[in-house]
Automatic annotation (TrEMBL), chain A:
InterPro entries, per the entry: Ald_DH/histidinol_DH, Ald_DH_C, Ald_DH_CS_CYS, Ald_DH_CS_GLU, Ald_DH_N, Aldehyde_DH_dom, Aldehyde_DH_NAD(P)
Alphabetic keyword roster: Oxidoreductase
Domain Aldehyde dehydrogenase: 32-445
Ranges for region Disordered: 1-20
PANTHER family documented for this protein: ALDEHYDE DEHYDROGENASE, ALDEHYDE DEHYDROGENASE FAMILY 3 MEMBER B1
Protein name: Aldehyde dehydrogenase
Family the UniProt entry places it in: Belongs to the aldehyde dehydrogenase family.
Protein's gene: ALDH3B2
Presence of keyword Acyltransferase: no
UniProtKB/TrEMBL annotation, chain B:
This protein's UniProt keywords: Coiled coil, Cytoplasm, Lipid metabolism, NADP, Oxidoreductase
SUPFAM superfamilies, alphabetized: ALDH-like
Protein name listed in UniProt: Aldehyde dehydrogenase
Keyword Cytoplasm in record: yes
Organism: Felis catus (Cat)
Classification of source organism: Eukaryota, Metazoa, Chordata, Craniata, Vertebrata
Major site of localization recorded for this protein: cytoplasm
Length: 489, 453
């Protein structure tokens, strides 16, 4: 079924008969809640079937998705495969392989008083989950959270981004054929629809997007005491030490910066290095850019485009900051911006005030590692942080004296390829995390369970009133003798 | 800047100096906290007596011992918990270091409440300190004596800049909430929980909310009623019913209702004597407002035991209500007092349906000798935690996370979970800066794939 794309909001002078249109989601949400209450999503077989359905969707419509990604972001087949489809397929496969193990009750160590009891953590679905996804990796960032939410046994409402229009269409029209629609719905639309959705009660909300909207989502969630995971963003610093091979660093920097035309929440946002290192880096960066995208990057099939006119204008404005050392060209008709490096950038300029989210790399000079660390710590905690040096001590120092969602020494966002590492932010870059088992755990309520035997009453009787100083002494002596924990309940 | 603002800024400045990073420092603070508790046990008991009519037994046994154990456990485990946690690598990262690094969040705010004013304020502190944070503590003003005691003794034992205590009422709490924190842990009620989350949203501050609800207690026909009723009476009437994990109401078949009433009465007399007012072990209601509220809940109900109160001393007799109508007021709000309603249901299914029609509670209890009944009750309901065949105690197992779900809260703590709650778990990948030959394949314009496994 899926939901048809919605029109503009209902005006307040509409007749009462439009009550249903005024809350277009009531029916869908009720249907999903009823299915959840009926227990449809509990059995492992049901969840596995949904995950397999997702997998089939990816396989059968790979080309359709690649075309949609090309239309939305001029994404190359290589990037689509590597950062969208393959990654999602991996998560599906991992979840299918591990589902039953993840669902099992997790036994916990017991203290002396509970030795004869059964103590475990039961993983339960929350109920109705809302996943709000962004436009930059519209397949990955919509479906990977979905994998976790479904594996954990929830019913899910998916709200893909309206900016990645072609992908949104595929998700709204084709995906629902592959997942049981009694427990799943795709709601396309814009900020209005999102706002309306957020007025309803969900049992969990998973949001990927900007910190500004993250605040709005969390405030809306507060009205219903809905727990949230917010995957936000920030300016991810990249410290480049004097002790390094500039070409190696430039290759890595360039690749991770210009991948998806810089529209990546974990891309290196700006470089911190000494003027000397900057001098060595610039020709190396030019060399890397030419090697990757050719003499005329505009004609390279490996370079994408900016998602929208609004972001294009925003980024073009940033080209005026500092001085263009490499690139700087742009073309409005294609929303093309050349892979660009800016130098002589002031901290107060716009390019150093907002997350860039485009193919522009400013270099800021610092005179020492200490100055770099201070610079980083004066700002909001970023989603990712990078440090390049031949000297491992330098890398470790940057790690130890800063904070960020995640950290990579001597490379870009490779750490995302390990599903054994949780992916999430801290501070303004977000709260909560996911990927792999972390997804399953994020979308589950961890219920503490203690099953006591009804016997052993004589032992427990010490806990009952009436109390006497003597009873207290006896208890304290017993605890002392055992030298260990004894909330002797 | 306001005085409260200054206090928080000082805590942040002290944190930024890096004082709390070394484990040794954190352990020293925890050891000082332990000394504080041992040296001021009498004062702690005195404050609890003044605030809630508790005695030195239950002060120790129902409050202090939890915190001492937590400190013991955390000191022992801290080196293990704080160590980098290596993770499974992929074929492409075999030569690299891949691990999760635990870091402090920064400045944590703990807002306590009045019913176990020592434990719910100090136990979260233990985890927050262990994780390396600065901690601003705001005890509840309703348990006035404990609030004053904490404000006096904590600065005598712990670093004054890093662990300030802020006292005051609603306006001070509102003032504190304007400041930016890196985590807020709040224990209290649902309505205020929403306000806290809204305030936290402005700064994108993660939160742990320990709220409440009506904790159902299902008593099966197939169970040892003597044992069940004794345990239920113990958990329900401790602290005069003012316990967030107390069994709030009983669900049972009508055929056993009378027996349950008799056995509850028997246990109550064993615990508190014929007149609980004379017992040193029976508590009092925290204030007049709550006293009036709880007394009001008894109106129009069938009282099988108790039902009386004394406003002057805020004493409410241990009370049992029978054949309670689910629509009545006593079944609409968390009772938080020594009144036990019994609602009759005709089957386990009806009990489960009854529970599921209501908000998810903080705790759920089921008494039965039949494992299948217990299993079914647990798998067809949800709650923060569960104890089968006892009440309250899942709370005391370190390795079980303590927290709610839905209206009863979000997040959890206790033991290792505290450490995790108050830490940021940072994913780390450290590679050597080798030359690029091995990584060439990933760069454009090559079409080679970067596979994941």
């Amino acid at each position: 079924m899926g939901k048809a794309p919605l029109g503009p909001s209902v005006q307040s002078d509409q007749p009462a008969g439009d009550a249903v249109r005024m809350d277009p989601f009531a029916d869908t949400l009720r249907r999903l809640r009823e299915a959840f209450s009926a227990g449809r999503t509990r059995p492992a077989e049901f969840r596995a079937a949904q995950l397999r359905g997702l997998g089939r969707f990816l396989q059968e419509h790979k080309q359709l998705l690649q075309e949609a990604l090309a239309q939305d972001l001029h994404k190359s087949a290589f990037e689509s495969e590597v950062s969208e489809i393959s990654i999602t397929q991996s998560e599906i496969n991992l979840a299918l392989r591990n589902l039953r193990a993840w669902m099992k009750d997790e036994k916990v160590p017991k203290n002396l008083a509970t030795q004869l009891d059964s103590a475990f953590i039961r993983k339960e679905p929350f109920g109705l989950v809302l996943v709000i996804a962004p436009w930059n990796y519209p397949v990955n960032l919509t479906l990977v959270p979905l994998v976790g939410a479904l594996a954990a046994g929830n019913c899910v409402v998916l709200k893909p981004s309206e900016f990645s229009r072609s992908t949104e269409k595929v998700l709204a029209e084709v995906l629902p054929r592959y997942v049981d629609q009694s427990c799943f719905a795709v709601v396309p639309g814009g900020p209005q629809e999102t706002g309306q959705l957020l007025e309803h009660k969900f049992d969990y909300i998973f949001f990927t997007g900007s910190p500004r909207v993250g605040r709005i989502v969390m405030s809306a969630a507060a009205k219903h005491l809905t727990p949230v995971t917010l995957e936000l963003g920030g300016k991810n610093p990249c410290y480049v030490d004097d002790d390094c091979d500039p070409q190696t660093v430039a290759n890595r920097l360039a690749w991770f910066r210009y991948f998806n035309t810089g529209q990546t929440c974990v891309a290196p946002d700006y470089v911190l290095c000494s003027p000397d290192t900057q001098e060595r880096l610039l020709p190396a960066l030019q060399s890397a850019i030419t090697r990757f995208y050719g003499e005329d990057p505009r004609s390279s099939p490996n370079l994408g485009r900016i998602i929208s006119d609004k972001h294009f204008q925003r980024l073009r404005g940033l080209l005026g900051c500092g001085r263009v050392a490499i690139g700087g060209q742009s073309d409005e008709s294609e929303r093309y911006i050349a892979p660009t490096v800016l130098v002589d950038v002031e901290e107060t300029e716009p390019v150093m005030q907002e997350e860039i989210f485009g193919p522009i790399l400013p270099i800021v000079n610092v005179r020492s590692l200490d100055e770099a660390i201070d610079f980083i710590n004066r700002r909001e905690k970023p989603l990712a942080l990078y440090a390049f040096s031949n000297n491992k001590q330098v890398v470790k120092r940057v790690l130890a004296q800063t904070s960020s969602g995640s950290f990579c020494g001597n490379d870009g966002f490779m750490h995302l390829t390990l599903d054994s590492l949780p992916f999430g932010g801290v501070g303004a870059s977000g709260m909560g995390s996911y990927h792999g088992k972390f997804s399953f755990d994020t979308f589950s309520h961890h219920r503490a369970c203690l099953l006591r035997c009804p016997g052993m009453e004589k032992i427990y009787s010490i806990r009952y009133p009436p109390y006497s100083p003597r009873k207290l002494r006896v208890l304290l002596m017993a605890m002392e003798a055992r030298g260990c924990s004894c909330t002797l309940l | 800047m306001s005085k409260i603002g200054e206090v928080v800024q000082r805590a942040r400045a002290a944190f930024n100096l890096g004082k709390t990073r070394p484990l040794q420092f954190r352990i020293q603070q925890l050891e000082a906290l332990r000394r504080m508790i041992k040296e001021h046990e009498k004062d702690i008991a005195g404050a609890l007596t003044a605030d809630l009519h508790r005695n030195e037994w239950n002060a120790y046994y129902e409050e202090v011992v939890y915190v001492l154990e937590e400190i013991e456990h955390v000191i022992k485990k801290l080196p293990e918990w704080a160590a980098d946690e290596p993770v499974e690598k992929t074929p492409q990262t075999q030569q690299d270091e891949c691990y999760i690094h635990s870091e402090p969040l920064g400045v944590v705010l703990i807002i306590g409440t009045w019913n176990y004013p020592f434990t719910v304020t100090v136990q979260p502190m233990v985890g927050a300190i262990a994780a390396g944070n600065a901690v601003v503590v705001k005890p509840s003003e309703l348990s006035e004596n404990m609030a004053n005691l904490l404000a006096t003794v904590i600065p005598q034992y712990l670093d004054r800049d890093l662990y300030p205590v802020i006292n005051g009422g609603i306006s001070e709490t509102t003032e504190v909430l304007k400041e930016r924190f890196d985590h807020i842990l709040y224990t209290g009620n649902t309505a205020v929980g929403k306000i806290i989350m809204m305030a936290a949203a402005k700064h994108l501050t993660p939160i742990t909310l320990e709220l409440g609800g009506k904790n159902p207690c299902y008593v099966d026909k197939d169970c040892d009623l003597d044992v069940a009723c004794r345990r239920i009476a113990w958990g329900k009437f401790m602290n005069s019913g003012q316990t967030c994990v107390a069994p709030d109401y009983i669900l049972c078949d009508p055929s056993i209702q009378n027996q349950i009433v008799e056995k509850l009465k028997k246990s109550l007399k064993e615990f508190y004597g014929e007149d609980a007012k004379k017992s040193r072990d029976y508590g009092r209601i925290i204030n007049s407002r709550h006293f009036q509220r709880v007394m009001g809940l008894m109106e129009g109900q069938k009282v099988a035991y108790g039902g009386t109160g004394d406003a002057a001393t805020r004493y409410i007799a241990p009370t049992i209500l029978t054949d309670v109508d689910p629509q009545s007021q006593v079944m609409q709000e968390e009772i938080f007092g020594p009144v036990m309603p019994i609602v009759c249901v005709r089957s386990l299914e009806e009990a489960i349906q009854f529970i599921n029609q209501r908000e998810k509670p903080l705790a759920l209890y089921v008494f039965s000798l039949n494992d299948k009944v217990i299993k079914k009750m647990i798998s067809e309901t949800s709650s923060g935690g569960v104890t089968a065949n006892d009440v309250v105690v899942h709370n005391s197992v370190h390795s079980l996370p303590y927290g709610g779900v839905g209206n009863s809260g979000m997040g959890s703590y206790h033991g290792k979970k505290s450490f995790e709650t108050f830490s940021h778990r940072r994913s780390c990948l450290v590679r050597p800066l080798l030359n690029d030959e091995s990584l060439k394949a990933r760069y454009p314009p090559s079409l080679a794939k970067m596979t994941r496994h």
